[in-house]
Design goal:
It comes from Weissella jogaejeotgali. The protein has 407 residues and is of the alpha/beta class. The chain has two domains: 142 residues, Rossmann fold; 216 residues, 3-Layer(aba) Sandwich (Rossmann fold). The chain is 43% helix and 17% strand. The strands form four sheets. Strands 3-4-14-9-10-13 form a six-stranded mixed sheet, sandwiched between helices. The chain has a four-stranded parallel sheet with strand order 7-6-5-8, with helices on both faces. Helix 3 runs antiparallel to helix 5 and helix 5 crosses helix 6. It is globular. The protein binds pyridoxal-5'-phosphate. Pyridoxal-5'-phosphate binds next to helix 12 and helix 16.
């Protein structure tokens, strides 16, 4: 069964293109004018001093920015190569980088006169972040979540309800994240007069990839300045995990023109890059159109989206943001795969070395740092983004390791 968004491959505009034609707006006609309004408003507001002050105020006083750039002394000594710095997005309010994006989009929605926020969520992280900001700004909030995911993530469903959001269990398709995105887009198409769709990653039709990048760029804006203050130099390498690619594009953004800074995106290889249980979209996917954008997707020869797999729910997405597809094509960034086993090992490693329980998503980036740092020299520097904290993962990692934590 093809989705609404696959059928309607309309792209009348050349806006939001990356590299060799990635990105664009492949959406039902009915959403075209709404996206145009969003785009115009975004282009105006990002240069508007009042908007920038509102954004800044919430980032500082609500989200706890700037996040630390932490020198991981123990890991550096243990690995015996490059100096390792961790950009601590795990210390943000709600425990991940996602808050940066939802604050920006919710403020934008307010300026557009919208009082109702909708969002998709997979494991629940983006849904919780959206529900959080809706509560703060007094907006109503409805979250679309695959029925499978609502059953696997009951705690986050309750957390969203606690924050005042309504959670819809999506029963179409395979009842997972990709189906939740479709449901949210359809809801927006049918009710855009009072509703804004807060997209959770650097994906979807233009201008979402650009907006999400803009709001997440605070990560590299800060890390660049912080490293300048601490080391008086640029990093040699920046590493971040890639699901849809929002924490990674935010981590890369301010270094894109510094061609001596190597950029590495780490995808989830799941059970192995050559197995069918993987989510390494850039390495394994092919060019297609889905969720309103042209990008790389895990799909069969008919363009049907394949199921993807990773131990990490946040990296379990069958596509990737169009700018990452373009950066890979231009070889400006390199993308590598890390397996479940390697990520779990990194989860334990960083906990024991640094006393940080990091999100399993972020541990994919840490596992890559463990491999690459020893091959680099001691005067080189890696900045690795810790996209989130790992409290949410402790129970499932215990289970993966065969540890019985039931009472
Ligand atoms: C959602 C999430 C990710 C993956 O999303 P991106 O858009 O690729 O950044 C990574 N880490 C954490 C902690 C997340 O919650």
């Amino acid at each position: 069964m093809k989705t609404l968004l696959n059928e309607e491959k309309i792209d009348t505009q050349q806006t939001g293109r990356y590299g060799n034609n990635f990105g664009g707006q492949y959406i039902p006609e009915i959403l075209m004018s709404e996206l145009e309004k969003v785009n115009q408003s975004f282009q105006t507001l990002k240069n508007d001093p009042t908007f920038k002050m509102e954004l800044q105020d919430l980032l500082i006083n609500y989200a706890n920015r700037p996040s630390l750039l932490y020198y991981a002394k123990n890991m550096t000594a243990d690995l015996g190569g490059a100096k390792i710095y961790l950009k601590r997005e795990d210390l943000n309010h709600t425990g991940a980088h996602k808050i940066n994006n939802v604050i920006g989009q919710a403020l934008l929605a307010k300026h557009l006169g919208k009082q109702r926020l909708i969002a998709e969520t997979g494991a629940g992280q983006h849904g919780v972040a959206t529900a959080t900001i809706a509560a703060l700004l007094g907006m109503s909030c409805e979250i679309f979540m695959g029925k499978e995911d609502t059953e696997r993530q009951k705690l986050n469903v309750y957390r969203m309800e606690l924050l005042g959001a309504k959670v819809h269990a999506v029963t179409s398709g395979s009842k997972v994240l990709k189906d939740a995105v479709n449901a949210a887009l359809q809801e927006w198409a049918s009710r855009s007069d009072d509703t804004f769709y807060v997209l959770g990653s650097a994906v979807g039709p233009a201008p979402f990839p650009e907006m999400v990048k803009y709001f997440q760029s605070v990560i590299s804006q800060e890390s660049k300045q912080q490293l300048q203050d601490q080391e008086n130099q640029l990093p040699d390498m920046v590493v971040a995990c890639v699901g849809g690619g929002s924490n990674a594009i935010g981590s890369f953004a301010n270094y894109l023109d510094d061609t001596n800074v190597k950029l590495v995106g780490v995808e989830a290889a799941g059970k192995g890059i050559d197995t069918d249980q993987t989510a390494a979209t850039i390495e394994r996917g092919s060019v297609g159109v889905f969720h309103g954008m042209k990008s790389l997707f895990m799909q069969n020869s008919d363009g049907q989206i394949d199921p993807v797999y990773s131990i990490s729910a946040g990296l379990d997405y069958p596509g990737v943001g169009p700018e990452h597809a373009a950066l890979a094509e231009a070889k400006r960034a390199e993308y590598v795969g890390i397996t479940d086993d390697e990520a779990v090992q990194a989860f334990e490693y960083i906990a024991k070395q640094e006393g940080i329980v990091a999100a399993i998503e972020s541990c994919h980036a840490i596992a890559y740092v463990e491999k690459i740092a020893p091959t680099m020299s001691k005067d080189q520097i890696i900045v690795c983004t810790l996209s989130g904290r790992g409290d949410k993962d402790v129970a499932s990692i215990a289970k993966y390791k065969g540890v019985n934590i039931d009472e």
